[in-house]
Amino acid sequence: MKEKLKNFLEAVTLKMLVVIAMFILSLFLFGLIAEEAVFENENGFDKRVFGLLSPFSNLSLIHLMQVTTFFGSRNFLLPAYLLLIAYLISKRKLRQAIDISVIALTSTALTFVMKEFFHRSRPDSHFVKGITTFSFPSGHAISSFVFSCVLIYLIVDGKMNIWPKWIISILLLLFSLLIGLSRIILHVHYPTDVIAGYCFGFAWIILSFWLLRKISLFNRFISSNEE
C-alpha cells in the first residue's frame, strides 16, 4: 500500500495539480454564479456591468458586435466543425476527428440541457430579436471557447514554431472573449450568463481532453496486448 501511494505521489506533477485546481475552481465559480444569479435572483452585478457598458453602446459598436456574435452561432460553428473534421479525415487523422466530434456534440448537448434546467429568461434587447432559448449559461460563450480550444489543441499538436503557436492561441482566446462581450453589449445575455459559460466551457474542455486521453491510452493498451 505504501509503495502504491509513493508511486502515485511521484506521478503527480505540479502541472497536474494546477490543472485539477483550475478545473475545481471553474466548477465552483459556475455553481456560485448559478446559485446567486439564477436561484437567488441577485442581479446587482449584471446591472452594474450593463450600466458601465451603456455609454459605449453607439451605433458603430453595436454593428461590430452584431458581426462578432455571428462567429459564436451555430450558423458559423456547425459548418466550421464539419470542414475541420473533413480536413482531418482527409489527412487520415481519424482519432483527432473523432475527439473533436465528441467534444463539439457533448458541449452542445450539455448547453441545451443546462438552459432547460436553469430556465432563466433573457434580458430585454433592442438589438437582436427572435431568440426563444433560455439565457443561462451563454451558449455563445461555451461554444466559442470550446471551438477556440479545439483549434489551439490542433495548433499545439502541429509543426509550427513555438512563438506563432502562442500568438495564435492567445488571439483565439481573446476573440472568444470578444464574442462573449458582444452578447452582453447586445443585451441578449446577462454578464453572469457569459462568465458562467466560460467557467463551464473551461471545465468541460479539461475533463473532455483528460477522458479522451485516458480512452486513447486504454485502446493502445488493449491493442498492444492483442498483438
Descriptive key words:
mainly alpha, 227 residues, 0% strand, disordered C terminus
Counted beta strands: 0
Helix/strand class: mainly alpha
Tell me the radius of gyration: 20 Å
Biggest sheet details = none
The dominant shape is globular
Q: Which range does the strand content fall in?
A: under 5%
Number of domains: 1
Please mark out the parts with pLDDT under 50 across 5 or more consecutive residues, or reply none.
221-225
Give helix % range. Answer: over 70%
Mean pLDDT reading: 87
Oligomer: single chain
What is the chain-wise order of helices and strands? HHHHHHHHH
> Total helix count?
9
Rounded to the nearest angstrom, the distance between the terminal CA atoms is: 32 Å
What would you say this structure looks like, in words?
It is a single chain. The protein has one domain (2-226). The chain has helices spanning 2-11, 14-39, 44-53, 59-70, 74-90, 94-118, 139-157, 162-185, 191-226. Residues 221-225 have low confidence and may be disordered. Helix 2 crosses helix 9 (191-226), helix 6 (94-118) packs antiparallel against helix 7 (139-157) and helix 7 runs antiparallel to helix 8 (162-185). It contains nine helices and no strands. 79% of the residues lie in helices and 0% in strands. It is an all-alpha fold.
